[in-house]
Amino acid sequence: MLAKLFSRKEIIDENTKNWILDTFAWAIENFDINVLKDDARLILPTNEFYPGTVTSIDEMAQAMFINTKKYAGMQKWPIQLISTVPSSITRIEDLRLGSTIRGENAEVSVSTGNDALMLGFNQSQVNQPQDLIAAIGQALAGILVTSNKVLPPGGQEYLPQTIDLVACFMGFGVIFANTAYQFRGGCGACNNASLNRQAALTEPETLYALALFCVLKKESLKQVKGHLKSHLRKDFTHAYKSIEQSLSSSTQPALLAFVS
Prior knowledge:
Mean pLDDT: 88
Helix content: 40-55%
Distance between the termini: 32 Å
Order of helices and strands: HHHHEEEEHHHHHH
Largest sheet: 2 strands, parallel
Strand content: 5-15%
Structural class: mainly alpha
């Protein structure tokens, strides 16, 4: 009784928790479980994941894009990043998807005569690298989710939240948690709000999705916490331990198959 009385409250409500678990299972079923098992990594905002020396803003953005695209398992997708207004009229509907859609063996092309999909970016975003990486990851997740024939739990109405969750499923949860909310006060030079990512999941929801990825991939708490903003660490720890304890009783076959 006392343990229950003084136990910490969950960081999200039961309905939201169930939606995250169900949507993660949906992503496992639709976006190549083997890529999640064998290739997906927890992507951190460090030189290990985004190395190299560049000589221009555009070169830096391209380097971030190439790495982010690879980590997303979408290196074979015909998508390019440009700093000008996209001139291509290629649509997501013009993509042709094979049986494997992520990883080195992905089968993705565009209809005959069409160019690659073009993603634009604001050159000033390079000054806020985590936001730029998150924005690229969000765009890639959006293309992946939108191109899928099966709607996520909650249907069309939940597509924005699903896109953020799929980005966490790809491994970008730390970067997404750090950019889910940006403080608007203080020194104006410290943060440009116009360059921030538009988050569809709240900080607690993103932390729960991150924790689920980390438990499934057996990432240690210590490895993750040091890369999160300080105010996020306690909630992340609580979510991680809660998922660790409850995952074995999940009713989702996809999640159970992953941990078995």
